[in-house]
Amino acid sequence: MTEVPFPQPRECPYHAPPGYLALAGSGPLSRVTLFDGREVWLVTGYAAARSLLADRRLSADRTRDGYPLVAPRFRASVARQLVLIGMDPPVHDDHRRLLNPYFSLRSVRAMRPMVERIVDKYLDHVESLPQPVDLVSAFTTPVPSQVMSEVLGLAEEDLDFFQDASRRLLHATTQEDSQAAGGELIGYLDRLATRRRTEPGPGLMGELAPAVVAGELTQHELVQIALVLLVAGHDTTASTLALSVVTLLEHPEQIAALGDEERLPAVAEELLRVLAVTDLAGVRVALEDIEIEGYTIRAGEGVLVSATVGNRDGSVHDDPHAIRFDRTGRNHLTFGYGIHQCLGQNLARLEVQVALAKLFARLPGLKLAEPAESLPYRAPGTGTVQGVNRLPIFW
Ligand code: HEM
């Protein structure tokens, strides 16, 4: 049998790569080959994906032997020792219990004025620039970055450093670059955590520092939690925003719905479903043999769960490849499933809804300054999320 490589490039930001769809046609689980020559499972069926993501016999611990690396940069220790997302119970669940209240629907509703203020600030900035404007550097990247920095409670004067170091960490293609930028951020967050133990301050760092003083959390854990929130919450949202703009401009009849508060959530949800910027809803290693839908996953084997393909399962969505902004429900895998389901999903939805609605309201004549096909989409294989490095627009 010929090897099927993973990952494969999308030919369009909002359609699945044809190679993945061919796999899905042959069953809910397939074998794919990673950059290092290793064969792992790719789960493409929605039901199998949910069942496996809820299965305690699969581990998310990136330091375990056999945990599959989808790109070379994940060899960096900063990418391997991730709290929450890269941990199993019971430690995962303890951290998650501590953090859940900060990202509940209620807490996130209270963040709306902050998100609106930040979106307005960067729209002012966009409007002040000569056209064409690169929406990625002027809007879609700085908005989630400043939101995360305010959620964490970082000082405003540190925003430039924070944005620069995060950008270098998230776009690193080598183990060395990833390690260097991660090290700078860890140093910065560690100094802030030390200060917050004696000096009260805003945001999560301010709120969780007393837990360090009380011995419920180590300072190392607090710093790691802040870093994971940054890594998980920044580029994902930024890329979703940029690719949403491309998608909406190719479906201009839908743009009016952004101005309708009733319809806006469904538009955002369909964009999240079709874009699934992380591509994968989870990466795991099997701890025991698992029988599923007639397949046997052996202990020690790697399992990749595809959100890109699972979100297009015809048994869940009618006409699954079509973009339809009148779909109801949230049955997609873009935020994962099970105990690791995205902590920040309420915040991500808020950012996507506010940013897109305000962007198209402020710049109703918005157009791409280059054909969508020629935009610099990110190369798969680097392990970064699906996205576009530049998005020149005029209005
Ligand atoms: C559109 C934007 C986003 C997408 C597509 C996304 C996607 C995901 C996915 C697929 C997972 C599950 C990973 C797994 O099971 O291995 C996840 C987990 C996570 N996300 Fe998000 N995310 C987004 C925004 C955010 C934001 C804004 C935050 C920040 C608050 C955040 C924080 C996290 C954290 C901390 C986890 C790990 C949760 C755990 O392990 O318990 N994400 N996200």
TrEMBL record:
InterPro entries: Cyt_P450, Cyt_P450_B, Cyt_P450_CS, Cyt_P450_sf
Pfam families tied to this protein: p450
Keyword hit for Heme: yes
Keywords: Heme, Iron, Metal-binding, Monooxygenase, Oxidoreductase
Keyword match Plastid: no
Domain of life: Bacteria
Family: Belongs to the cytochrome P450 family.
Name listed for the protein in its UniProt record: Cytochrome P450
Biological classification of the source: Bacteria, Bacillati, Actinomycetota, Actinomycetes, Pseudonocardiales
